[in-house]
Amino acid sequence: MSAGPYNYSYIFKYIIIGDMGVGKSCLLHQFTEKKFMADCPHTIGVEFGTRIIEVAGQKIKLQIWDTAGQERFRAVTRSYYRGAAGALMVYDVTRRSTYNHLSSWLTDARNLTNPNTVIFLIGNKGDLDAQRDVTYEEAQQFAEENGLMFVEASAKTGENVEEAFLETAKKIYQNIQDGSLDLNAAESGVQHKPNGGQAGAGGRATLNNSSAGQTRENCSC
Amino acid sequence: MFHVPVMDLEELVKHKLLPGHKLIAAVQAGLVQEFVKRDRALALIEGFEAADVSAHLDIIAANKRSGAVPAVEVERAVLVLCSTAEFLPSSPSQFFIESVLPIDARFKYTIDGLEISHRSYALTDGNQSAILLSLSSSRHQLLFEMTFSQKTNIFVSEVMKAAEGVSKRKAPTPEFTWLKPYLNNSASSGSSKPSAAGDHNQNSQQIFTIEGGSPCLVADLIGMSPEGADGGSQTVNSDGGAGGDNFIETGRDVVANRASPSHKGGLGGSLAAEDEADLLRVKDITLDNFALNQSTFYKPAVMPVLAGARESHVQHMMAQRQGSYTHALPLTVFVGTWNVNGVPPSIGLIEWLAVDPEPPDVYALGFQELDLATEAYIFQASNREPEWRAAVLSSLHPAARYVEVKLVRLVGMLLMVLVQEKHAKHVSRVQACTVPTGIMNMLGNKGGVSVSLELYNTSVCFVNCHLAAHVEEYERRNEDYDCICEKTVFVGPSGLQRYIRDHSHIYFFGDMNYRISASPEVNIRKLASAGQYETLLKLDQLNQQRRIGRVFKGYSEGPINFQPTFKYDKDTDSWDSSEKQRQPAWCDRILWAGEGIEQRIYRVHMALKISDHKPVSASFSSQVKVIDQAKYRRVHEEVMKQLDKMENEFLPSVSLSKSEVVLSPVHFLELQSETITISNTGQFPVQFSFIKKLNDEECCKPWLKIHPKSAFIPPGGDCVVRLDVKVDKSSAWVLASGAEQLYDILVLHLDGGKDYFITITGDYVRSCFGSSINALVHLNKPFCEVPVAQLIDLESSAPQKTLELPYAIPKELWYLVDHLHSHALSTEGLFTRPGLSKELCEIRAALDAGMPSRELGVSVHSIAQALLVFLEALPEPVVPCSLYPAALRAAAEGYLPAKQVVSQMPDYHRNVFTYLMAFLNELLVHRHENKLDASTLGSL
Ligand SMILES: Nc1nc2c(ncn2[C@@H]2O[C@H](COP(=O)(O)OP(=O)(O)O)[C@@H](O)[C@H]2O)c(=O)[nH]1
Ligand SMILES: [Mg+2]
């Protein structure tokens, strides 16, 4: 058997943030299970999902944290931003208020993650075009002004869901490749497996694996 | 794991063996099927053909005398044993043989490391403490996970040895008839599959070959107890999963897991030295006993995780689903062999290479004695090679265009492989190898030249050989064959080694030089000329050697309906007339091995007369596998998705009886308890803990106590978490002042899984306890009647002027002190005996209600304690924090500085201080009765 024992060479941590009910959990579910979960229970806490994807021939394991969006949990969910390599910031195209709150989510994301964290804006429920309350153009402009990647997606139809998660990973990978994301930084949100598969270009000589465990230690008793 | 001490396992297996059969090694292993790991034991055993028993004994006796190596070779097989016992299989009857894998030419194994890491946020750097061993026979393809121990090491290396021995063996083809009892044994336990032990006259390996021949799982073949119901299924046996603990998963199904770090210690985690291994063995025994006593104990570290090396699993599963993304493409393969006796190609080869109406898809042409010039031996140079190559290229079938894939030559042996142009892009991994077997196995006058390639998605090997000459030298030919099999190895770019037997399709041909062993009275020439081939073919040495299994095990050869190909006078069809008078023989042969190969034609080409051999050819219809890339991707994606899905489903999950706790009004010092039931709804043990939030020191507010803060819940189990809420002096003020609410969010974290938030909300009923002196002096009505807004306002730094004249000291303080003053000045043990907490609550309620405490029927000790608590709960102590250092100094220095400190106190504080001091003084006056002294009070 030619393949090594490892089947992925990186782990990227993602968080999904945004107001309650915008479809964060549905997006995660659609991405990991390729199914729409219409009667998704409210997230009271932080859900967790994983999937292995491939970027530039590298297998990457995504560890995705889906946070509760209720305002009252805001202070608690902030604990989870740390060490995220990617942040998916979601609003609901049919509810203007969820869009209006983006700047406050963005502030949190910027303050609580590292400067290289890729922030991807998702306008969810794109399938409900008739009830649209936020135009594509204004959101696009908001994204541009804030240097965010952006798509409109639908957790229901699956449209652009895959893309959003993959594009984020590609961008992170690209950041690793051009050196702007320092894997040695404790909060890069990326873990690299030393002997990983085809150990690609990211395989620097001195990867600090001890930083790998940081993600949770911060918030455990 | 069976968790029997290794010695016991061996003993148990030995009981299963028939007399004369030997146990080489036994080891515990997990049989991995889809996502499920089942406990099994593997045993490598040794036996010999029943018919050989007497011979064997004879030989052993003979060897005792001569000291020679026994000629009868033993055969080895792997038994897979299963236990019906829940725990330790203590008797052999609880053990049955599930499947038998003979180590024959079809036997293959691969070994893969297994990443052992409990799915955690930290990556353990590549602990390779388990291995994945994949074993396949013609009948089974099984994947085992084994802990990396010395036992495992021994087992695996013995299997490797045995497999290697098979390719080298000189003894007859192993019949493995001795294994039949085991096979029946395994089949008898409920098998619906007839044991295919029938027609072994054709090919001995038939016993272990099932029709159709595609690899399948044992469980599919043998519906045995106790897993009969779900054998080979993808579902996870949930109650089996409950045995996720290393110690108690004995004999039951568990989801294959990456063994936990602590698992490593279990079965001798490393290549321990012998004595160390003994120690570990002892440890195992005690652990086993422990497990029996503590069957409900779950070890937290064992978490359900998908079976280890995912990549291996993907490969394994892809292999099993091969049928769903491949289709067979029939290709015509033309194989030709010709010993040209060193002559130049003076004639065209069309009558050899292009006699069929349809052009073949593949040509594999082998020449021998292409060049007999000395230079060819010494310098490897040959003028003949280009000549013959050109002759071949100009004589290929005219109806198609061909490209040469590979040409390889060793002295006189030349092998050319060509494919039709349209197939060229489907040929990959082309490699060649030459093996000399001439004098000292160094000289290339004899030997084999081979080409390995991937034709579409089937690995194909062509071997052109020239074996030792002369009638009586058949054993030498056998050895040449052995040597070619052993030494022909193709090394891929990744270092992967492929032997001839590792290919799916093998064509083995050439001048094998096997002759007709006939007694002098048999007239070979006459029989040959008369076309009585049957008689001669019985005497054909190759047929004889194959019949006894000495060479070409697993190969087929089509029926020979043509005259011997050797030896003719040049340019004639007449038998050798030289003085050597060589007898006719079928020296030139074509054999094949592999599934999906059908021979259509096997013939001699009499028209080509320039050599003393006539060329031979065979045409095959060979089904090569073609991977449908789209389907492959789809299946691959499915497999990956399934793995992802499983991985997500395997995440621990619990349900909470509530995620919000609403407290009834919380009073100062009054304990309120709530419970939350955490139920493990997953299939695996769950470790939970309440964790700290960002920037927090503790996982909850100081007024909350959680018990337990972390625990382990078995699948289906519950854990009741008690939440004790009690606002005491330390948190009263922050709550009273409105700086904080009685509100907290607890983060319940599952090890390896998601987090749950639990919200605690409640109203804190403000009390005079915990209120400041400044606020209290401004309140002239009962505390509980004061609006909250006013209280908050009073507690703020700049209270608005109230119209009423404030009290000199808080009235509540006065109540308490007054009570003590009038009832307890001479009570023994005042302030040193504890009060009753129930009474304390009553006092608090009474004070808040504005009721003088003297009307309460409570003990003075409770009142005394209430006074202390009252003082302690003051947000700003009587002696304000800012003056505290000065006060300490003053206390040491004397009256004047002390007086100065007192004068610096805020008014109401000074009042309280003076008042208290007066009271304390009085207490001291009564010291004889109340047994207080200055130091005790001072310490208060
Ligand atoms: N029509 C439509 N409904 C959606 C979509 N995504 C989520 N929903 C619905 O929106 C509600 C909230 O989704 P959920 O994932 O729980 O939101 P969260 O609070 O952000 O995690 C659910 O009732 C979903 O069925 C979408 O793309 N289209
Ligand atoms: Mg949600």
From TrEMBL, chain A:
Stretches the record annotates as Disordered: 187-221
InterPro entries per UniProt: P-loop_NTPase (IPR027417), Rab14 (IPR030702), Rab_GTPases_membrane_traffic (IPR050209), Small_GTP-bd (IPR005225), Small_GTPase (IPR001806)
Assigned EC number: 3.6.5.2
Pfam families xrefs: Ras
PROSITE patterns for the chain: RAB (PS51419), RAS (PS51421), RHO (PS51420)
Cofactor(s) needed: Mg(2+)
Top-level division of the source organism's lineage: Eukaryota
Entries under SMART domains matching the protein: RAB, RAN, RAS, RHO
GO biological process: defense response to bacterium; endocytic recycling; Golgi to endosome transport; phagosome maturation; protein transport
Keywords: Acetylation, Cytoplasmic vesicle, Endosome, Golgi apparatus, GTP-binding, Hydrolase, Lipoprotein, Membrane, Methylation, Nucleotide-binding, Prenylation, Protein transport, Transport
UniProt cross-references to NCBIfam families, sorted A to Z: small_GTP (TIGR00231)
Family affiliation: Belongs to the small GTPase superfamily. Rab family.
Record-given protein name: Ras-related protein Rab-14
Gene (UniProt): LOC108670726
TrEMBL record, chain B:
InterPro entries noted in UniProt: Endo/exonu/phosph_ase_sf, Ig-like_fold, INPP5B_PH_dom, IP5, IPPc, OCRL-1_2_ASH, OCRL1/INPP5B_INPP5c, Rho_GTPase_activation_prot
Cleavable signal peptide: none
GO cellular component: early endosome membrane; phagocytic vesicle membrane
GO molecular function, one term: phosphatidylinositol-4,5-bisphosphate 5-phosphatase activity
Cellular location(s): Cytoplasmic vesicle, Phagosome membrane; Early endosome membrane
Keyword Lipid metabolism applies: yes
GO biological process, one term: phosphatidylinositol dephosphorylation
Pfam family, one: Exo_endo_phos2
Positions of the Rho-GAP domain: 792-940
Main location (coarse class): membrane
Coiled coil ranges: none
EC number: 3.1.3.36
Keyword Lipid metabolism: yes
Record keywords: Cytoplasmic vesicle, Endosome, Hydrolase, Lipid metabolism, Membrane
Residue ranges of the region described as Disordered: 221-248
Family as reported in the entry's similarity comment: Belongs to the inositol 1,4,5-trisphosphate 5-phosphatase type II family.
Protein name: phosphoinositide 5-phosphatase
Source organism of this protein record: Hyalella azteca
Gene: LOC108677496
